[in-house]
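Might you be able to consider the sequence and fold that I enclose below?
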Amino acid sequence: MSILIYAESAEGKFKKTAFELASYAKKIAGETGTTVTAVTINANDSQDLAKYGVDKVLKVTSDKLKAFNAKAYADVVKQAAQKESAKIVLFSSNTDSLYVAPLVAVGLEAGFASNVVALPVSLSPFQVKRNAFSNKAFNITEISTDVKVLAVAKNSFGLIESGASLTEEGFEPSLNDGDFTVKVESSEKVSGKVTIADAEIVVSGGRGLKGPENWGIIEDLAAALGAATACSKPVSDLGWRPHSEHVGQTGKPVASNLYIAVGISGAIQHIAGINSSKVKVVINTDPEAPFFKVADYGVVGDAFDVVPKLTEKIKAFKAQNS
C-alpha cells in the first residue's frame, strides 16, 4: 500500500507541482506509516523526485501519450493506483490534472476533493480543507470512500526536501483505442518564456496600457523579475495579447507568490481567478479601482511613469546584490 501521486511533466521535465505533491504526500506517508509512489508519463530523470520523498516511480513511456489526452492519462493513473493498492491518489489543481482527476475518481469509485490547501485536518474521519466560493472562503470536506482522490492547490504547501532511496520500475498500462477518440492535430507552445502555470511571479496588464504597442513595459518588468506575463480578458478579446495569457475566472487561474496588476480595474471575475496569489500589487491611475480593495500593496499613478521606474530600480537592486 502507498500514496500515489501523478508527477506531471512537460517536454520530459517535471513541473514544480510534481515536487510540491511529493512533499505533501511524504508528510501524509510519515503520519500513516506508508510510502510514496509516483507515476510519470514520458518524463526523463526520475531521481529529482527522490529529494522530495518519493520512494518508487512507475515510469510510463509511450509514443501514444506524447500529446495530453485526459481519458488515456486517467487510465494510466487508475491502473497505477490499482497496482499499488493506493488509498490516496494526489494530483495538482491545475488545468490538465483537473481533467484527469475526476475520471480517475470515477474509475476507482473514490471520493474526490479539489483545491485542497492544507494537509488533512483529520485522517479518521478523512477531512481536508479546501478553497470555496472562488477562493473567498474555505470549507472542510469529508471523504468516506475507501480510496480518496485529492487535487492540491498550487503553492499551498510548498517544497520540502526530505530525501528518499528511490527505485524505478517500468510500467506498461493497458491502453485501448477507446482512450484515443479525441486526437490532437497540432499544438502551439511558447518557448523561452516563463509560463503562467509555473510562474512564481506574474506581471499582468489591462486596458490601461492603451494598446499592444505599449506592452514592452510589461515585458521589461517581467524580464527583470523572472516573471510570466499575463493579461485581463478585455485585452485578450481585443487581440492585444494571446488568449493563453488571459488570467481570471474565465481564463487561467493564478496562484503565484507575487501578482502585479498594471492598468487592470479589477472586475470580480479577474479577482476570483487570481485571489489565491499570496501578494497582490496594483498599479492604476484610478484610486477607486475595485482592485485596490483586495490588494496588499497599491500604487496610484500612471503606469507609463511608474512601471519603467520600478523596472530600473529592480535591475539596479539585482546588480548590486548579484
User: Anything to note?
Assistant: The helical segments are 16-32, 47-50, 70-84, 95-108, 216-225, 233-237, 268-274, 303-321. The radius of gyration is 21 Å.
